[in-house]
Design goal:
Number of strands: 10
Radius of gyration: 17 Å
CATH architecture: Alpha-Beta Barrel
Strand content: 15-25%
CATH class: Alpha Beta
Bound molecules: 1,3-dihydroxyacetonephosphate
Number of helices: 11
């Protein structure tokens, strides 16, 4: 039996002031993390203080960045390297978030380079994929996910994939209040796991956590997380509300996924 430890991440996006970041960091120090991984992804400028606050509180909460550059260093104004992130105590990073792809212009190939850099630097990498409404209505959900997954992992070394987490975030569900039905999300997740098995091997596919993101709230989290291939969530708006985020983490705690595949 393969057991996947639930994972819930809070992506704060370009929100919070320093004071609000401190308050949110204090709120996630609660030691609810016995059988779950909890992560927060504050803006770059607050990573240092959030990471220090959590360290000081002895919290197991993972601190991650919302993006990174794939190069070492150099004349790249405004960019942040993996080494800078690990320097600050970051142990995770997002790549390929839909807002980076669709608003900020990250191509499939660039996402692949960033993912390889994050994984190669020892960071847990949450590779985000997902289709737009137009693509969904054209019946292309699985094809888009497959394309983004293959490109996202094109440069990653097989040995680094233990630190991979995939986040399926349908673009039409992000920040809209519309959520994929548990059945639709499960179908997408199962197809993603199938692509992972094809790209890697069955053991890796069964061990890799696949999170759902897109308008997850306390009221819909348990039903989503109960699906066999949904191993937690990547939370936007609700992660800015400590009570809502705690309730979502709680919903994930009781849904450790198991599979019967050999590992
Ligand atoms: P919402 O939870 O606000 O829909 O955002 C999801 C998301 O983009 C997390 O990365």
């Amino acid at each position: 039996m393969a057991t996947r430890r639930p994972f819930v991440g809070g992506n704060w996006k370009m929100n919070t002031t320093a004071r609000e970041a401190d308050a949110l960091a204090r709120a996630v120090t609660a030691p609810a993390a016995d059988d779950i991984d909890i992560a927060v992804f504050p803006p770059f400028v607050y990573l240092d203080r959030v990471s220090a606050a959590l360290r000081q509180a002895g919290s197991p909460t993972i601190v991650g960045a919302q993006d990174l550059d794939h190069r070492d260093n150099g004349a790249l104004t405004g960019q942040v390297s993996a080494a800078m992130l690990t320097d600050l105590g970051c142990t995770a990073a997002l790549t390929g978030h839909s807002e980076r792809r669709h608003i900020l212009g990250d191509s499939d190939d660039l996402v692949g380079l960033k993912t390889a850099r994050a994984l190669g630097s020892g960071l847990i990498c949450l590779l985000c994929i997902g289709e737009t409404l137009e693509q969904r209505e054209a019946g292309d959900t699985d094809a888009v996910n497959e394309r983004q997954l293959r490109a996202g992992l094109a440069h990653a070394k097989p040995a680094s994939l233990d630190a991979l987490v995939v986040a399926y975030e349908p673009v039409w569900a992000i920040g809209t209040g519309r959520t994929a039905s548990p059945e639709d999300a499960q179908n997408a997740h199962a197809a993603i796991r199938g692509v992972l098995a094809d790209l890697t091997d069955n053991r890796t596919a069964q061990a890799t956590r696949i999170l759902y993101g897109g308008s997850v709230k306390p009221s819909n989290a348990a039903e989503l997380f109960a699906q066999p291939d949904i191993d937690g969530g990547l939370i936007g708006g609700a992660s800015l509300d400590p009570e809502a985020f705690a309730a979502i983490c709680q919903a994930a705690t009781h849904t450790t996924s198991t599979t019967s595949s050999a590992r």
